[in-house]
Amino acid sequence: MTNTTDETYSAAAEVAQVRVRRTWRERAWLSLKKAPPTAWFGMVVIAIYLVVAILAPLIAPYGEAQVFPAPYAPWSAEHLFGTDQIGRDIFSRLIYGARNTIGIALATTLLAFTIGGGLALAAAILRGWTDQILSRIVDVLMAIPSLIFALMLLSIFGASVVSLILIIAVLDSTRVFRLTRAVAMNVVVMEYVEAARLRGEGTGWIMRREILPNILPPLVAEFGLRFCFVFLTVAALSFLGLGIQPPTADWGSMVRENASLIQFAQYDLKAALTPLLPAAAIALLTVAVNFVVDWFLYKTSGLRDER
Amino acid sequence: MSEPLLKMRDVRIDGFTDERWHEIIKGVDLDLHHGEVLGLIGESGAGKSTLGLAAMGFARPGCRLTSGEIVFDGMDLMAMSERRKQKLRGTRIAYVAQSAAAAFNPAHTLLKQTTEVAVRTGVMGQKEAEEYARELYAAMDLPNPRTIGERFPHQVSGGQLQRAMTAMAMCAKPDLIVFDEPTTALDVTTQVNVLAAMRKAVKDYNTAAIYITHDLAVVAQMADRIKVLRFGEEVEEQPTAQMLSDPKEDYTRSLWAVRGIEKPGESGPDKILELKKITAAYGTTPVLTKVNIAVPRGKTVALVGESGSGKSTTARVVTGLLPPVSGQVIFDGAPLPPELKNRSKDQLQKIQMIYQMADTAMNPKQSVGEIIGRPLRFYHGMSGTAQRERIAELLEMIELDPSFADRLPGELSGGQKQRVCIARALAAEPELIICDEVTSALDQIVQEGILKLLLRLQKELGVSYIFITHDIETVRAIADEVVVMYQGEVVEQGLKEEIFAPPHPDYTELLLSSVPQMEAGWLDRAIAERRELVDSRGEVATD
C-alpha cells in the first residue's frame, strides 16, 4: 500500500489509497506460494496425468492394441502389470487410457460449458420468453436420471466417441445452464450492464465483456467439478459397455474386462489388484481435481468453512 | 460535574484490511453524562461507527480494541468478559442502526421484537413490557400506538419502522443509546418526524445518546455537543451552538462551508428534450401520470421529490428502458422511438446517463481506460493512439491524472469513481446527461467537487442535465429549473428562484420545510409549521 498524494486532483481531501499493481503472473505465483498442501498435491497429480496423457505414445512400452500371445500374464519385468484377457499390455493401456478418458472428458466438459453457458447467458440477458423456454427445457432434461437417459440415447444412436461426447455434453450442460444463469442474474442487474445496453451494445458483447469476466470464478470451479462428473460418467458408461469401444483403451472398460481377476486374490494378490489399477487412476484424478477446486473456491468466493 | 456515564480515554482500534492491521481509531477521548446527546460527525471512513460501537465495548468483525479505557457507569468495558458485556448491551446500552428494515425479523410482530430484550433479560415481565412498549410507541408519535405493535415489519412504512426500532432500543430502559445514521435512509419529509420523535423520547426519559451522522444540519438539531472526527482522530469538540457559530479548526469550517455553490437559474427558449403527457406503468401499476417536462438546451433541470415519486421512472422513459403507455418523448425537435432497441446509435449517443452508485455502474474487471475507451470506439470508431490521447484528455477534463487509465475501479475512491463515470458519459459527446442521484452516496466535500465539475463541464461543453435528486441543497447549487414530483405527477415546474420563493403548493412547501437547516431550533419550528400545514389541509401523507 502506498499513499499517492502527488496526484493532480482537486478535491484535496480525497486521498486515494492505491495498491501496488502486480502483473498477472506475479499475482498467480504469490497465491500459488500460499496454496495449502492439498492443493499442491492436486496440482502435481493433475500435471502428471496431463503429461502422461499428452506423451502417451512416448511413455508406453507397447502399443495400445498390440496383442501378445499370453493372455492374463502375471506381473513381470516384461509386462509391468501383466496382460489382459486377449494379451494386451495393461500398463500401456493404462497410459493410453489416460489420454482417451481425459481427452474425451475434457472435450465433453468444454462442449457442455459452451452450450450451457452460452444459452444461460442469453437467457439471463434477454429474459422473458427466451429464458422461460430454455429453463423449462432444462427442467425436463434434469428430471430424467442422466445415466439412464445417456444409456438409452447411446443405444439409440450407437456407441461412437462422437455420440458419446455429444450426449453427455448435452445432458451435463443443463447443470452448467442452471449455475451460469443463477450467477449471471446477479450481474445482469448491475448498472454497468444497463449502461452497456443504453450505449446500444449487442447481446454478444454484453455476454462476453460485461458479464463473463465477473462470473468466471464460480464457473471455473464448476468446470473442475463438472469434469470429474463427466469423467466418472464416461467411465461408468464404458464399464457398462456403452462407452468407449475396444480396442480403444479406457479405464472404465478396463475395469470391466479384468473384473473377474479379483476372484483370484487368494492365489495371486497382484493379479487381483489389476482391475483396481484403472479404478484407482479414476479415483486419484477425481480427488486431485476436487482438492484444486476447493482451494480455488476458497480463494475466490470467500467461502470459509473453518470458523 | 459528577462522574460521566461513559468515559473513553485514548481509545485505539485496529481494522484488518489488505491482510494487515491498520489503526483506524487513533486515541480518542470521549465523555458523556446522563441525559446528554453527543453528535459524532465526519466523512465516511472517519471512524464514527467504529467509535460508536466501541462505546458498547464492541468491535465488529475485522476490528479489535487495542488499548485505551472505556468505562461505563463505573464498569471497565475493556476488562469485562464478553458474557457480561452481552448482558449490558440491550439493557443498559442500546444501538439503533441505519437500516431498520434489515434489523427487524420479518417473521415476528413489532411488539414481540420490541419487548424481547427487556423480557428475556428479566428487566420486565411480558405484560409490563408490552404496556411500556405501547407507551413508547405513543412517545415516538407512531399512529395507533395501542395496536401498531400487532403489525409485522413490512406492514409499516420505513419511517415508522425506524421509530419502532428506537422504541425497541428504549424498551429495556437503557442509560445510553447509540444512534448510527438512523435517518440517512429516509426521505427528508419523513426524516423530520423521526428526528423530532427521537429527540423527544431521549429527552423525556433522560437517556444519554451518541448520535452518529454525516449530516451537519441533522446533528445540529439533535446534539448538545458535537465532536468532529477525521481519519480516526478528533478534530474538535464543542457545544453545538458554539460549534455552529464559531468552529475553531479549518477542517470543521470547510465542512460547514461546503454548501457554498450558488448560481442563478436561467431558462432558454430552445428545448433539447420535451416529455409530453407521459403516462408509464410497471405492469399494471401506474407510476407516472401525464407528466410534462421540458429541458432547455445547455441548462439543468432538477427533478425533486421523495422516493417513489417517479423521478427515476422518468429517467427510464427518457432512456427508453421503459416505453411509456402513452405520450411522447421529443428530443431535439424530433420524436424519439419509445423503445430502446428501435433507437439509432446516433440517438443513443446523444443521451447519456450517470448513476448514483458509481461502484455498480462500472464493470469491476475493466480498467478506467477500457471503460472510457469503449464509447469512444463504439460511437466514434476511435482506436489506438487517437483513443489513448482522447482518454488522457477526458481524464484531464475530470481533473484526474492520465495515469489513472490503467487502474481498476476497485482502486479508486468514491469521488474518483463518480468522476470516471462522468468521463464515460462525456466520451460519447452527448447533448443531454441524466444524473440520477449522482452525489447522494458521497461525502459532502466530495459532493461539492463533483457538482463544481458538472457545472464547469456544462459551461465548457454546453451539455444539458436532468438532475434527479432528493436533496434540496444540491438543487440550489446546480439547477436552473426545478420540477417537483409527487406520486407520479408533476406538482410544478419553473425557474429555481420561482419554485423556492413562496407561495408554494402544499407539497412543495412540505418538502422545502423538511430540509434540515444549519441553525439551532430549526427542528422545533419545522414541526410547528408542519402542524399548521396538516391542520389547514386536514391530511398530509408523510408516512
Automatic annotation (TrEMBL), chain A:
Protein name: Peptide/nickel transport system permease protein
Subcellular location, principal: membrane
Xref: InterPro entries: BP-dependent_transpt_permease, MetI-like, MetI-like_sf, OppC_N
Transmembrane segments: 39-60, 102-126, 146-171, 223-244, 276-298
Keywords for this protein: Cell membrane, Membrane, Transmembrane, Transmembrane helix, Transport
GO CC annotation terms, alphabetical: plasma membrane
GO biological process: transmembrane transport
Subcellular location: Cell membrane
Pfam families: BPD_transp_1, OppC_N
PROSITE patterns given in the database record: ABC_TM1
Keyword Cell membrane: yes
Origin: domain of life: Bacteria
Residue stretches making up the ABC transmembrane type-1 domain: 98-297
Family: Belongs to the binding-protein-dependent transport system permease family.
Membrane-topology descriptor: Multi-pass membrane protein
From TrEMBL, chain B:
Pfam families in the cross-refs: ABC_tran, oligo_HPY
Subcellular location: Cell inner membrane
CC per GO annotation: plasma membrane
Coiled coil residues, start to end: none
Domain of life: Bacteria
Keyword Cell membrane among UniProt keywords: yes
Family matches, as SMART domains: AAA
GO biological process terms on file: peptide transport
Molecular function terms from GO: ATP binding; ATP hydrolysis activity
Keyword match Translocase: yes
Broad class of where this protein is predominantly found: membrane
UniProt-listed InterPro entries: AAA+_ATPase, ABC_Ni/Peptide_Import, ABC_transporter-like_ATP-bd, ABC_transporter-like_CS, Oligopep_ABC_C, P-loop_NTPase
Protein keywords: ATP-binding, Cell inner membrane, Cell membrane, Membrane, Nucleotide-binding, Translocase, Transport
Residues annotated as domain ABC transporter: 6-256, 273-512
Membrane topology term: Peripheral membrane protein
PANTHER family: ATPASE AAA-TYPE CORE DOMAIN-CONTAINING PROTEIN (PTHR43297:SF14), OLIGOPEPTIDE TRANSPORT ATP-BINDING PROTEIN APPD (PTHR43297)
Family statement: Belongs to the ABC transporter superfamily.
Protein name, as recorded: Peptide/nickel transport system ATP-binding protein
Source organism of the structure: Wenxinia saemankumensis
